[in-house]
Every structure is written in structure tokens, then in C-alpha cells.
Amino acid sequence: MAPGRPSPGPGKVTECATEMNRLLALLLVATSLLLGCSGGENDEKVRRIVYWEKWTGFEGEAADLVVNAFNKREREKAKANPGYVPIEVQRVTVSRIDQKLLVATAGGNPPDVAGIFTYMVAAYAEKGALVDLGPYAEKAGIKRSDYIPHYYDLSVYRDKLWALPTTPASTALHWNKRLFREAGLDPEVPPKTIEELDAFAEKMTKWEVTLPNGKTEIRSGYLKDVPAAQKRLIQVGFLPREPDWWSYAWGYYFGGKLLSDDGKALINSPENLRAYEWVASYSKNLGVEAIQRFRSGFGNFSSPQNPFLSGKVAMVLQGVWMWNFIQMYSPGMQWGAAPFPVPADRPDLYGIASAEADALAIPKDSKHPDEAFEFIKYVQSQEGMEMICMAQKKFSALAKTSDEFWSKHPNQYIKMFAALPTKPHTFAPPKSGVWNEYVREIGAAVDAIQNLSKTPKEALDEAAARGQIALDRNKAISARRGE
Amino acid sequence: MTAAERIETRPEPEQPASGPKVAKGSGELGAPAGEPGPKRGMTPREWVNQRNGLLFCLPWLIGMSVFLIYPLLSALYYSLCDYSVLLPPVFIGLDNYVELFRDALFWKSLWNTTYYAIGAVSLGVITSLTLAILLNSKVKGLALYRTIFFLPSLMPVVAGSILWMWMYNGESGIINTALGAIGIKGPSWLADPAWSKIAIIIMAVWGAGNSMVIFLAGLQDVPTSIYEAAIIDGANWWQRLFNVTIPMISPVIYFNVIMGIIGGFQVFAQALIMTDSTGAPERSTLFYVLQLYNVGFQDLRMGYASAMAWVLFAVILALTFVATKASKRWVTYDR
Description:
A: D-Maltodextrin-Binding Protein, domain 2, D-Maltodextrin-Binding Protein, domain 2, two-stranded antiparallel ribbon, 18 helices, B: MetI-like fold
């Protein structure tokens, strides 16, 4: 997974353990496409639409749940009105949807509806790959006020609505209570400031030290007086790049932004600089090589060897989906979740969180856009939305949530996660047609900062300059096309 | 071409001496539509042959045009456009090429690729040649050894990359464990920018079985009489190696070097799988084709990516040309 890849969901989709799954999925896609082409489409009296979804595993099953409910409802509708031809949604799992959807759309054979990430909206809309959902939403009576506004706005670009959310997500600090206790910290009190986070992290850092007599012992702290050759990192309190999904975003927690509203790259702003000085401080305290070695012992995200689940990292920034993985791989774990800390001199920022969503969009040249929107509309109903969000153990993107949903929800922190996106500082990747390229530049800068091969200033200046080139180029292209 | 030529030229001796002899060269590809048309002194037999020849080539001609010439030329056109696949291309002249030469990542990826190609080709040729020479001797279980050394090249690149990722693991990989056993603290291969390219080169050398087999074939082609003469003249093993073996198989070395350069500049899948598409760590494995893939398929700047592809074509063409020129000095085809 690309560093800083703005995926709202876990990066497990692209990790290598799931390589096989992906190949299988690909085979399935190929087979189903072949079957789809070989006729039979009109044998039954249904209006079949194809739905591409990126998720596998429990997230994929959640999508199946709404698909089946919708199909069932359609069949019942047809039974009640003999003239009505029911819609049948056929879900197909497609990996790397960010690339394949565009290629399929360009080839003139896109699915009728696709499950995308909200960060894709700007680039896709700019390239004319999506259908404007505005008129459909208006006809169906879907309004911004029906939603937690942040999640509706994620799919709005250049004043048009391009997608509607399926499952929303927000992120928070997750901490391992056992490791807190072992380090003599109160397991019920998470850090509220970056300074506290750093102090806690130092206390929960553990090394295996080789003594002159050849024996080893476990010691905690940064142990700066012990030479690197004699110590091996076995546990850390916190690593700014674990997971590596929001490495581009640390500036936000220090009051920074990545892109100004008028298209200026702010990667090297003072707030961002401060944030990445902080990132570099972990490399200085722990040692670049020690971190590299330690990280290479981490397992895949979706495995019991996940460094947080296996107790190698005590505190991580993770999304609301983490509950599922804790239940799956470390069900006995004692953990807590709270808003991520902010600098002590910026208490106003407390509660800031990255919040993105999965969304449904209709690709340009979809053969059944009306039927596709019928399905989207169903997912936007309270019934459909709560069904898919409960199956993924997330909260609903709608403004109204049923009491039953809250009382049934197994994650004790769900209301905290649901409240985060309503706060003023909530952020998501800036909407830009060149976000992919932009975030790659930041990722390369963070790489160099973490390895201490460049100072944060050098690295961020370079990324800002290159990011600006991309922004300007994109602006020039839009101007040339007369947009 | 050869099929057509054969069909056409075989019956020639039977032909009457009348008529101009132009038909002789008409086996050249593309030429048939030209001068020696059926009216100008071509016998019906010749004409039928020519038609049949063309028909036999047709599947290949169509394949070549549809899958090679057309994409090649459209890439050339798109390289002069701003093209994002879905919207119609907008002609922008040489802008893509101008931006390319100003793009630090273009130079960085070119450097990374050159580093890789030099390392992989030189180490690969030395290793596969050494193995081939060793496996050309008469030892017991030769077939088994040959199979063992050839096997890695049969491994699909994805599977091989994943395997090597485990072996390169800085903490628990087999390589660092083995190095640790002899007292060396191995680097975090794929996480350390100083070692990541070298790691991918080593993996490429591991798959040198293919060129080894080609070397073996070359070695077995060297007449034993030359070795016997050398032995009678008192040449030792090393002298025979440098004065008989290597000159005699120099065309094979040349072939392997050229193929190595072409393959080396197209290195892609290993880096995509083992590091990731950004060429982490610190873009040390951002190879040329990887950058092309990023630009083309992630950023959808197909025009720019097409320009990159044409520049790569020019680079490989130039290197092949240089290698061919240089080969005149040391490649010998005399037997």
C-alpha cells in the first residue's frame, strides 16, 4: 500500500497475504464477465445491474447483505404488481477499483454502479468518469440535511454531487490497556496532548539488551546510552508510521492543511513542518535502523501478527473498523479508543479526526443508470444504511440513527466515533484531481524524514514544489479544456 | 517472411528464363504490393505463389498491425497530447517531452533503472556463464544440477518476489538469520534505501537459469578439436577459458547482454510487489516502468506516459546500437 494512501478502510485489500484472494477475485470477475456475455441476461424477467465492490471479507459480506435485501424487496414488489419488472443487483468483487473502474469506463463497458472511496471523487469527476447524481437525488428527495454533512460533502466536487455514502468512517487513537498497566500508566486515561503521547510512548518502549556477559535483559525507555548493536527493539509505545495510511495527514493534528482553497500547496507550512519534526523525533529517539528492523517483523494488517493486535505497538491511530479486527484476531484484548492527541498549545484542536467514506457512484455510460440509482437510493434509506453499517460495525452516515442501532451496536466507543465527524476540524484528503500524485510526493517526503536522510524542511520544501507543479499543470489542463 | 520466401523461391528453377528476373526479390515483406505486379511479366504460377505467401503471412500481418504497429503509432500521437483516457485527447505539441526532461523523477527513475540494469546484466552474465561452464564439465548427476540451477527461472515473478520478501525480512528473514550465524548483522534489505536496489539485483541473478541454458548450448557447440589443440599446445584451464571458450561463445554472450539490457530496463513487477508503486524506501526502487505505470494508470496522464514509453524505446534502441557497435571488437563469428 502506498504510503499515505488515503484509503478510508484498512489497507488489507492490497497486502500480499490477500494476493491469492485478489487473483481469485480476478478469476471470478473474468468468469462472471464471460458468463455475463454468454447470454441468459434476458431469460428471466429481471432488470439485472452489475455492481462492482472493492471489499472482500466481512466488508464484502456486508455489501451482499444490502444487495440481497434490495433484490428481495424488488421481487416482492414484482409479485404485488404483476407488470413490474424487478431489478436484480449482481455484486462482483473487484480489487484496485481506483484503476480498474476508469479503464472499464474508458473501454465503454463499466459496471452499472460502483463502490468507490470518497477520495477518488475529485479525480474521477474531473476526468468525466462519473454521472452527476444531483438530478437523481433531487428526484428521490435526497438532501444534504439527511446526512452528517461531512459525509455528504465528501462526494461534492465543483458544486455537483458525484456519489452517495455507504459506510462512513472516522479515526481515533486506539490503545492497549495491558501495555499501559505494565508500564505503570493508568489504563483508563489516554494521552490528550502530543506531549503526553510522547511521554507515554517512551515509557512503553522496550528493548532486549545484550549484556557484556552474553546474557540478555529487557529494559524500557529510549536507552540512548546503550549502543545500537547491543539492543533490539521489542515493543514501542507509538510509531508515527504504524499504520502508514495517514502519514500525509499529521499536519492537520498540528493545525495545518495540505492545500489552500485557491490551489496552493501548503505542504511546507509551519504547522506541517512542526508535525514532521515530531515524526522525525521518533526516528531520532529509537534509531532509524532499529525502526526498520522492528517494522520488518510486523505481520499483515489483517492477521494476528498485526503489530497493535500482537502488542508490539501500544498506541495506534486507527479507524472505527478496528473493532472487527480486534474481535477476529485478538478477542480478549483490553483496549480503548479516544480522540487523537493534539499539541498542548492547541487545545482547540482536540477532537480532530480524519473521516472518509465508502460511496456508491454511477460510472459514465452505465447501461442502467436509473436502476442503479434505485439501488443507491435503497442504501441511503435508514433501513439500508443501518443494515450495511451494522454489518461493518460502523456508524450510520445519516443524520438520524435509530435507537435500536445504538443499543445493538457492540462497539462501546461507537458514539465517540460518530461524534468525531460532526466537529469543526474534521478533515479528509483535499479534493484535487491530482491527489494521487500529490500524496505520493508527501509519502516520499515522509519516507526521507523518517529515515533522517533529509531534514523535514528540505523534504517538505521539495514535496511542496513538486506538488505545486502538479497543481499548476492540472489547472492549465482544465483551462485548456475550457472548464 | 521466410515462409513466403520459401514458397515463392522454391519453384524458381522450373521457371522459363523469359521475363524479367524481378520476381526474385519480391519475397521481401511489404514489397509484393510494389513493382512486380501480376501484369508485369509474372507467370500465373508466380502470382498464385505470391498470393498464397501473402495469405500465409496474413494472420501475422494482421496481428502485427493491430497489436504492435497501431498501438505504437497511437502512443506516439498520444505522447503529443494531454490524454486522460475518458476525455478526448488535446494536442499540446512537445509539452510532454519538455516536462519530462525537467522532471526530477524521470531522471531519478532513469538512474535507478540504469543502476539495476548494469548490476543485473553484469552479475547475471558472470553468474550464468560461470554456472554454465561448471555444468558443462563431466560430473555425476549433471542433469540434476542443471535442473536445480534452471528451476528458479521457472518461478513466476509474483511468487518469486513474495518468496524473496520473506527471505529479505530484516528481522526474521532467512538471509539475515544465516548472516547472523556467521556474525554479520545483515541490513533491513528492502527497507533500507542503500540496499533495496541491490536486493532486487540479487533476486534477478537468482533467476539467471535461462541465460545459463543458452550459454550451455553455446558451450556445447565449441568444437572439442580446438580444446585438444590448446591442450597439446600446453594451455592450462584458465588459458583455455580466455583464449578458446570465451571467444568461441562471444556471440552468445553478446546475445545475453542485449537481452539482459532490454529486460533490465523494463524491470517492473518485482519493485511493484516487493516495495510498492512509490518505489519505497525513498524512491530508491522507483524504476522507469514503475514511474510510467504511476503516471499512466494512477494519475491517468496517458499522454505523458506515452512520451515516457517512447523515450524508453529510444534509450534501449541507443544502448542496443552501442552494444552492437562495440561487439564488433570482441564478438567473433569465425569458426
